[in-house]
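Long-time lurker, finally posting.

We've been working with Purine nucleoside phosphorylase DeoD-type ([Clostridium] polysaccharolyticum) and I want a structural starting point before designing mutants. I don't trust myself to interpret raw outputs, so I'm hoping someone here can both generate the structure tokens and explain anything notable. Sequence follows.
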Amino acid sequence: MSTPHNAAEAGKIAKTVLMPGDPLRAKFIAETYLENPVCFNTVRNMFGYTGTYKGKEVSVMGGGMGIPSIGIYSYELYQFYGVENIIRIGSAGGYSDDLKLGDLVIGMGASTNSNFAHQYHLPGTFAPIADFDLLRKAVDTAEKLNVPVKVGNILSSDTFYDDDQDAKLTWKKMGVLAVEMEAAGLYMNAARLGKKALCMLTISDHLFTGEELSAEERQVGFRNMMEVALELA
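Top reply, 14 upvotes:
Generated this for you. Predicted structure of Purine nucleoside phosphorylase DeoD-type:
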């Protein structure tokens, strides 16, 4: 079996896939945490690996930047490879005053300025949300590992360089914790296909204070997030 974007053979991808945006981060996770990782995809250099973590089979694969990209990769994993759970692990820019650099944020809901939901011809506005079982397990795991965690609404934005400079303040007023670029598309694919999804984010910078993590601090913060996510497999 293969798709236009994934060369994996049937049965080579686990039921749970961790999905960072950066394919090189997928490679790092596989080589650092998985036992006997095997690369199943290199199409467009979007690396994917399957191995075991504490005896459980788990896969990790890049998802790219933006909803169109993760929309393709997550759909193919769910629809053609029998994947049941996709856990996005990425970085985010903080909005909330309560967030500190390095904090773990879990997207209970994912607001968006994307038109991705238009394809479903819904008679209203769809609210993309995480799977509750994955969400609850992630929160419990973070607490056991003493990793600070905030849960709430995030924004999946189509624009990294937004011409509307007031947009971030407007979203902040609505209680949105942080901004990233993929979760809403992932959550909608999961809803449409009857699958499970969760988005976990490390705050790498804050859009109101101007603070940002150093390269070393990012490494530590991302490791915390990766280890929580791996426990969910």
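Before you design anything, note these points.
The chain has a mean pLDDT of 96.
The domain at 16-230 is CATH 3.40.50.1580 (Rossmann fold).
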